[in-house]
Amino acid sequence: MANKIYPDAAAALEGLLHDGMTIAAGGFGLCGIPERLIDAIVASGVKQLTIASNNAGIDNEGLGKLLRSRQVAKMISSYVGENKEFERQYLAGELEVEFCPQGTLAERMRAGGAGIPGFYTKTGVGTKVAEGKEVKSFDGEEYILERGIRANLSIVKGWKADEAGNLMFRKTARNFNQPAATCGKVCVAEVEEIVPVGSLDPDCVHLPSIYVKRLILGAPYDKKIEFRTVRQRENA
Asked: Quick one: CATH architecture of 9-127+150-217?
């Protein structure tokens, strides 16, 4: 069995990064994002990136770091409301954005990973999402053609992995990580814990090792919160 475990993020990404590449990134907000790998991509200086991800993190966190360093040319995203730098670059015409409904984006990644070049969906029919896309009628209803996403690289964050690269995601951190992992030519994963082969219950493996080419231990992590809301204590 080939050793998939690398000492750090920079080593795991060595030889994989180049200008103009497409990266599929897992995560939702700041939940389940591949923090160590994002930091290594920032440090590499690679530019003109196309990134497919549900969102672009927030200012100076997650993929927001790559926006701040001006390494991203295009985002394929669903939700971008919490990132002021994203908004500024988009409105200034400095960043190309392909808005994609959330479920459609997940399915585009899953389809790309399954070798499906395109699929039809009702989501977006009659809206800006449908502009320039093929429309076809099935049983009297209109559907638009969406293309599967194939990326040069997938970066994902897992909870636990065995040494072979079988991955488990924890609760909502599963989000986009699973489909994103499958649609890249190479998938690099960071996890909180690596255990010996045979330690994971096969029924609990969310992503089989065949998809994971390189793996790093990213722990320890700090829990980051997008919005911290607290109520004032009532006077005793």
From this structure: 3-Layer(aba) Sandwich (3.40)
Give the residues of the chain that fall short of pLDDT 70: 1, 225-228, 236
Q: What is the 3-state secondary structure (H, E, C) of the chain?
A: CCCCECCCHHHHHCCCCCCCCEEEECCECCECCCHHHHHHHHHHCCCCEEEECCCCCECCECCHHHHHCCCEEEEEECCCCCCHHHHHHHHCCCCEEEECCHHHHHHHHHHHHCCCCEEEECCCCCCHHHCCCCEEEECCEEEEEEECCCEEEEEEEEEEEECCCCEECCHHHHCCHHHHHHCEEEEEEEEEEEECCCCCCHHHCCECHHHCCEEEECCCCCCCCCCCCCCCCCCC
The domain locations on the chain are 9-127+150-217
> Could you give the count of Cα atoms lying within 13 Å of 232 in the half-sphere of its Cβ?
3
pLDDT of residue 99: 92
The whole-number pLDDT of residue 1 equals 60
